[in-house]
Every structure is written in structure tokens, then in C-alpha cells.
Write a structure and sequence with these properties.
It holds the Pfam family Glycos_transf_2. InterPro entries: Glyco_trans_2-like, Nucleotide-diphossugar_trans. This protein has 18 helices and 23 strands. The longest helix is centred in the last third of the chain and has 18 residues, at 519-536.
Length: 581
Amino acid sequence: MHPPSIYDAYEDWVQRHGSLTDEDRQLIKADLINLRDPPLLSVAMPLVPELRQEDLRCAIDALRNQLYPGWELWLWGIAPPAVLPYLQQAMTADTRIRWSAQADAQAVTALACGEMLALLEPGAVLAEHTFYEVAVSLRTRPAPDVLYADEDRLGPDGHRHTPRFKPLWSPELLATHDMLGQPCFYRMSLLQRLGGPRPEYGPAMGWDLALRATAATTPDRIVHLPTVLCHGRDGAEPDRQDGYPENGERALRDWLAAEGLGEARLRPAPLQPSAWQIVYPLPVELPPVSVIIPTRDRPELLRACCTGLLQMTDWPADRLEVLVVDNGSTDPEALALLRQLAADPRLRVLSAPGSFNYPRLNNLAAGQARGSLLVLLNNDIEVLEPGWLREMAALALQREVGMVGAKLLYPTGEGVQHAGLVFGPQAVRHLLRFAPANDPGYGGQLALTQALSAVTGACMVLRREVYEEVGGLDEGLAVGFNDIDLCLRIQDAGYRIVWTPHAVLVHRESASRGLDVTEPQRQRAEGELRFMQRRWGEMLEQDPYHNPNLMLYDDTGHNQAQLSVPRRTPPWRRAVEAVQA
């Protein structure tokens, strides 16, 4: 029996984990006493004809109930007659509330005085600790230029539903849809430099601003608070408004052009048509690619793998070489196959006898490879469609991308084998393993190109210069974790690890090497885990690309996202721990 979905379980989760206790409020107030130079924070909200007085009242009451008092609200636009008396009363009662009937979002930004500003949907309600969370985050160094948090929706009866638990920002994911959503606070100096929001983008104005603002700062100044801080009204979502698709596409094309990607093609993401797939451009002269395949015996696997590479893959024959690294095959059929394959001018067989050491085999081949792009491929991978390499290569050629992984399926219909790796306490797990092949996943996890912490070494594409810069695979990790270690070292060098659902292959997982079942194998695996814990420590405990309110996936067939006890320690609790330390 499957556990309930996120949406079915959310109401109970809110009761248990999604609301402040009296103790929380007291700790927040105590922490605020020590807050030096408290910033002024601005929020701006449009008045629209369909806005009800009760909704506006709830939004303003939520601001007045904020535990952090340093805020101002700017309303803009023509007030519906039904809300005008209440609005005038509210402004008289609280001078932090301002209204300009003639202004638009751009003009309001110029009027606001806060250090940070957020644009909210009509009637959106902020959680009572929102401004506290933002103010505390401004104490970090470097201080954020863009700060966003999780959100949910409010139904007509006020109940909370449809949570959006978001991952860490990446430009690849933001290019598919407005992943930042609300609340999203921008540093005022950054907004001034950008010229503020652009109202001509209509309901896609927020996405346009997110694209431009994140491109104008550095990744370490884009901060995600993984806690629900905003409750949007049903029906007020920007992507439900007239004109959103065409204005969103225009904003995306403008951003791509500014990033030097004007030749990229856009099309609806196949598994999530409300979002975009970006087909990144390849150079006119395609780079040479070297595919590295370690192998030992198992001729049926190698034959299928090489057939797909040499006969199905859409890449010029004179720009493709396959390096089969033979780790001591003895099977007569395998030896005959190696001789047969070597007759193809695109393929070389490298002899590498000795005990199995996956990094050593790949490093040996990489040293002899001629390509500027390297593909690390298991011999139990099978090609399904011709465009997989073009998709992965186009991403790998982006200057800030260090590694690209693919979507891998089981061969007999069990669904997704690999869609990225998730780190958590005491384990590294596959993301949504066993989900149906056509499942978009929660928040598009299985449908949209995005950055992740790591991808499997069964199918990796990266630039040769990146591989050499980080020193290749670590031969101290003979079997396990070497792909994860490589991903972490690539990230440490300043690159992103990107996973694409638009390159789909079959993976007969562990078919060639088998599973760790003997006592020596278990001891080796445990030693490799200890090695990783010593080298990477806390980085393996908390995955920034996996929201800590979502469960860490296991390998027992739970193929849908589930809610978790939050793994984040809130800042008021951290303040107490710091005092006690």
C-alpha cells in the first residue's frame, strides 16, 4: 500500500510541522532583541478588480501580525469600490501601509524604501515569521541579493493546500518555469540597477524579473529558505492569468538572448507542457566526443551498448570515438566480440587487466582519448533514441556546467532507474526510483532540466578540460561513490551538475559487475562510505537541491514524493544552540 501523496497528507503536516508554537514565538522575539541594524523590508501588492475586501483584510492582518515590525506595504492600482473604505481605514490606522492609484509595479519599486522588496500576488498572506526569517538571513555573508521561500495556496475557506517545496535555484530550472514564485525578496540596489520590474510583461512580470535578477548576481547571493512563508489565493496564480504563456515566452527568449543563447529553441516540456524545454544550441562544427566503456566479459551487454552508440546515435562518425577498456575478459564470445568491434575505425579496445577499479579504467582511457567531450558509460547502457548525445553535449558545453547526467530507465518496465541522486543522513539515494517512465514527478522533478548535487556514473558527459581540472576519478574509490565524489569535486571547482530528462537511455543496473553480497565486498563498500564521510562530511548530510520538507527516497518502491519531518533547524532554534554552545 502506497503512502498518501503530498497533497493528501499536507493538512496533517501543517498541523504537526507547518505552524509556530508559543515557544517558537517567544524564541523569535528573544532573537530579535539581538538583531543589530534591523533592516526595513518592503512588500508590494497590486489591487485588482476581483480582489475581495476579506482577502485584502487577511493580507494586511498578516502583515500587522508579523513578529518582526520593520516593514512597509505598497499597494498599487485602482482600488475596487468594495475595498476602498477598508483600505482608507487601514492606511489611517497604520502608516506603514501606502497606496498609489496611478503607480505600477515599476513605479512602486522606485517609491519603496526597504533594503529588500517582494512583489506579492493580490491577497497573498505572509506567515507571521516571514520578515524575521528575511531579516536574519541578511546577517549572513555574503548577504543575499535574491531570497525566496516555499509557498502554498489558500482555498476559499482558508485551508492551506498545494504546497510548493522548492529546490535550490539553478538557471536551467528557472528557464523552464518561474521556480522562485513567491515570496521572493530582491535587494533594492539590484532592482534599481535592473530598472525594476517590467510591467509590459504582464502576468509574467515576476518570472521576467527572476530571470534578470538571478543573472545579475552570483549564485552565493541567491538564497532559498526551505520553509512555507507565503499563502497565495486560489485563482491569483500568474500562470492562470490571460496573456501569461506569450509573455512568459517573450521573457524567456529575452533572457536567452542576453545570455548569448539566442539560437536556443523552445518547446513545451513533453511531460509537463506548462513548462519549457530549452534545446540548447550546438556549434556548427560539432566537438569530437570520446565514449569510454569499461568492460569485462558479458558480451551481450557490450554488444547492445556499442550497437546503440555506433548505429543509432546522432553524431557524425568522424567526430565520435569509442574506447572500450577491457578489464581482463576471458569469455571466448567476449574476446571474439572485442576483435569484431575493433574492426570499426571509430572504436579502439584498450587492454587494462587486473582487479576491477572503475576510476583507474576510466582515467586510463581519458588519458588516451582524442575528444574534447568525454562520455563515461557503463557497458549495461542501451540507447533508446538518437538524440541523447546531442542533448547532453549541448548542456555540457555551457561554460558553468561541469557534468551532465541522463534519465535512465529499467529495461523491463519497472520505470525510472535514475533521475539524479539525493544526499541525506547516512545515505545517498536515487530520486523517485521506480516511478513510471512518463511520470513528471513532484514539481517537475522527472520532467524538467535542472541542477542536482550528483548524477550516476553509468552515463555522464563532461568537457575533457573539467575532468582534467579536478584530476579525474579518484582511484581510492575502486567501486562505489567515485561518481558522487567526482560530482562534488566538480561543484567544488565552481561548476554545476545538470540532469536532463530529455536524454533517455536504458540501464541494466549492476548487470555487469553485480551487487555487493559477499563479506569482502561489504567491507569494501563500508570503507568507501567512511572515506566519503571523512572527505565531504556535512555536504552528504543535507542536499541543497532536495527540499528538507520532503522525504529522502528509499529503494523499496516508493515512487512518489512524500512529506517528511523537516530536517531544517529554524534560525531561532539555531540561536538558542549558539548560546548554549
